[in-house]
User: Which sequence fits this backbone?
């Protein structure tokens, strides 16, 4: 078997996909966790999944439908969560359930074998294509550039939304940009991690980092680190013990979260505040 | 500092009305403020003071009338105009786990005017540090903002607003949670900065005890209407204040020569 740096050649694609997926999901995860928008993340993840099923039904590339539907969901729930005209949970819940209904409808409409559709539930990082890796690398790079260039604006919008508005930061623009980035990240990571599991990769690394630091910069770095460790650890364990890769990635990220929660300095703060 | 009679109006409100469902928050309010003017807005709770400031920041939709600030119409999306308006709002509860320190929170005041995508310069950080020192929160610089007491957060908000160096300063009960000794110090600082930079200032309070030491004008609001508008010596009279507050008793400051009134 041909090897590069002692790793079988066929494992390099999943390793690269895990690396870029880990970076992208962890960065948008920081947005979701800091702004307490977890349900919005679930909603967009399921919309991307629905879009991919729609594509399979009409014979498109699943990525195209995933991007289209996640952007549609972002366009609907973004303003609702932003302006608060309706309870964000209620409006997101309605979009979420509608998307889920559509997902099962498209699943039923797909002619012949449903194997390719069901694989979107779990994803398969081992069969990721060269194009998928390039797209994942593109979105990860885009997010790194976005968060580096607009670091100060994003930091204030995420942690101090009201202040961001008062001091003249275009907070609505930054917020929508981040929602769109979330939609795109979810859509392009769908085949790697799967529609059901992607949410954990979005949430767990950033929630773990959130437990460990009060510094936004460190939170971003830790989140990316945890995302990559989860992906690489998951690939290594699934390869070694012949287990489903998506599941092991998620379980590792959950394990990191449990460890972070145990070691969290914020745990004490919460306790003191509750006394 | 005296306001030149011929100095231009920087804030103009024409027949403003704001309704929250059936409640009238502001009722046909017409006011204008000249450049460098220092006005105190007085009134009991629910008289429309905070709504008035929100209208000026473009964060509250008006149902009637028009608003012009520096010749522009404020709105939620007019963030460029908001860079010229520093707003110290009433403190709200925040998540104590948020990853933002006190120094970063004060520096937010520079974030808008620095421009999109441009990091703060050394001069910006020096201003942030000197203001933190001046309001007495330097020792809290690296503390998460969510761990501060109400008074400390109010000082942070004041430092942030002063860091913005905006020509218009809106202060909504800025010293409400600050202890009396620090309160005097903060008021002195605010007045010094207002004089130094000729900020047009609207200072909202419902307690006479929290009034600044001096101001050019007093506007009294009651039930969303302008109830009185004039010079402090004309309006800061015990009978006027009793009438404004509905005779329910109010706190008077000895520096205005009033006695406490209890009914």
Assistant:
């Amino acid at each position: 078997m041909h090897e590069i740096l002692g790793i079988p050649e066929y494992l390099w694609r999943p390793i690269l996909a895990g690396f870029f997926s880990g970076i992208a999901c962890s960065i948008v995860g920081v947005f979701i966790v800091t702004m307490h928008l977890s349900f919005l993340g679930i909603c967009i993840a399921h919309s991307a999944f629905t879009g991919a099923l729609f594509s399979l039904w009409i014979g498109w590339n699943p990525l195209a439908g995933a991007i289209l539907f996640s952007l549609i969901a972002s366009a609907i729930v973004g303003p609702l969560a932003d302006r608060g005209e309706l309870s964000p949970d209620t409006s997101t819940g309605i979009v979420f359930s509608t998307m889920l209904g559509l997902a099962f409808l498209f699943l039923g409409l797909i002619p012949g074998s449903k194997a390719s559709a069901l694989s979107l539930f779990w994803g398969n990082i081992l069969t990721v294509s060269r194009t998928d890796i390039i797209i994942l690398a593109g979105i990860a790079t885009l997010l790194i550039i976005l968060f580096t260039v607009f670091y100060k604006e994003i930091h204030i919008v995420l942690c101090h939304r009201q202040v961001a508005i008062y001091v003249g930061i275009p907070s609505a623009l930054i917020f929508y940009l981040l929602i769109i980035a979330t939609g795109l990240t979810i859509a392009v990571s769908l085949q790697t991690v799967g529609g059901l599991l992607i949410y954990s990769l979005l949430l767990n690394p950033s929630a773990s980092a959130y437990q460990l630091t009060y510094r936004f910069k460190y939170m971003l770095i830790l989140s990316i680190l945890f995302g990559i460790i989860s992906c690489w650890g998951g690939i290594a364990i699934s390869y070694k013990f012949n287990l489903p890769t998506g599941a092991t990635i998620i379980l590792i990220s959950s394990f990191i979260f449990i460890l972070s929660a145990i070691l969290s300095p914020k745990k004490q703060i919460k306790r003191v505040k509750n006394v | 500092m005296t306001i030149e009679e011929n100095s231009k109006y920087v804030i103009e409100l024409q027949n403003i009305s704001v309704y929250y469902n059936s409640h009238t928050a502001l009722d046909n309010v017409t006011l204008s403020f000249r450049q460098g003017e220092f006005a105190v807005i007085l009134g009991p709770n629910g008289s429309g003071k905070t709504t008035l400031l929100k209208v000026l920041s473009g964060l509250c939709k008006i149902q009637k009338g028009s608003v012009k600030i520096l010749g522009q119409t404020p709105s939620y999306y007019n963030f460029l105009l908001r860079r010229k308006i520093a707003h110290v709002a009433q403190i709200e509860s925040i998540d104590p786990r948020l990853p933002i320190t006190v120094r970063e929170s004060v520096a937010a005041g520079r974030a808008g005017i620095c421009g999109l995508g441009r990091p703060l310069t050394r001069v910006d950080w020096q201003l942030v540090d000197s203001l933190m020192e001046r309001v007495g929160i330097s020792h809290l610089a690296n503390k998460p903002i969510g761990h501060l007491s109400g008074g400390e957060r109010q000082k942070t908000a004041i430092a942030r607003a002063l860091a913005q160096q905006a020509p218009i300063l809106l202060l909504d009960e800025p010293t409400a949670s600050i202890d009396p000794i620090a309160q005097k110090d903060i008021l002195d600082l605010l007045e010094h900065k207002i004089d130094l930079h000729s900020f047009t200032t609207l200072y909202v309070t419902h307690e006479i005890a929290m009034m600044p030491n001096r101001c050019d004008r007093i506007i009294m609001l009651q039930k969303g209407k302008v109830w009185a508008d004039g010079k402090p010596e004309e309006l800061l009279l015990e009978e006027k204040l009793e009438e404004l507050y509905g005779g329910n008793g109010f706190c008077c400051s000895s520096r205005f020569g009033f006695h406490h009134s209890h009914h």
In short: Chain B touches chain A through 41 residues (CB under 8 Å).
